[in-house]
Amino acid sequence: MSRRDRLSALVEELRAVAPRPRSARWLARRFEVSTRTVERDVNALQSSGVPIYAVSGRSGGYVLERSFTLHPLNVTPAEALAMSVALHRLGSEPLAAAARSALRKLAAVMPPGDADAARHLAARTGQPPAAPASVPAASGAVPGAVPPAVERALREHRVLRIGYADGAGTLTERCVEPVALSDQGEHGYLLAWCRLRGAPRVFRTDRLRRGEVMEETAPVRSLTPADFPVPASPPAPLRRAA
Fold first, then answer.
1. Cα–Cα separations (whole angstroms), residue 210 to 110, 167, 172
2. pLDDT in tens, the chain (242 residues)
3. Backbone φ, ψ for residue 115 (5° rounding)
4. Which residue from 143, 113, 111 is spatially nearest to 241, judged by alpha carbons?
């Protein structure tokens, strides 16, 4: 990272946590430089007019004035999650460092309540359902077209009434308790507790013929990805609901 990029990243790091302080030692570890380099960088930023000040004490460090923080960004938690996933998928691409910086900005400028909700949604991204050891799970995949009713039921912890067509085209009506969304290649999957079968089930989202979000709040169940039967093509990493 060039010094110019590091100075910009340092400001964004302090902006993201303001008004909490970051110590020189913490920043040095974050940017893989010495504490002396961090001190020189902060002095350079202060000289250029960036309102950074030092807080003494055991939990002290450098703080960016609130007046220098960005205005709240009006995006929903679901929109923020979508952007976070897209940025995260850059992985080791050349723009990965810029993506991480953008993610910090996104979290910093969202209203606190929405930012917490988005972080909670993202934190529910877990491991894939159990699959045979010979089948490696893909990583970083995100379901494509997800019916709005499914996404809403996941987000609001609601029971979902669906019409579902099996592989032979037979349609059944059932109520399910959505747990997660998963993806493998061209197919998306809904992982849910099926009240018709009284057991965990996996539903292909392209076979959902209709969906109605019920008023009933889905009960909390102690389910893990290993509790779900594996489709012929095992799904990749989960995108769980909050």
1. 33, 16, 11
2. 678 888 888 888 888 888 889 999 999 999 999 999 999 999 999 888 889 999 888 888 999 887 665 555 566 666 666 676 666 656 556 667 777 777 766 766 666 666 666 555 554 433 333 332 222 233 333 334 567 888 788 878 899 999 999 888 899 999 999 888 776 656 778 889 999 999 999 998 889 988 899 999 999 888 876 787 655 554 444 555 54
3. -65, -40
4. 143
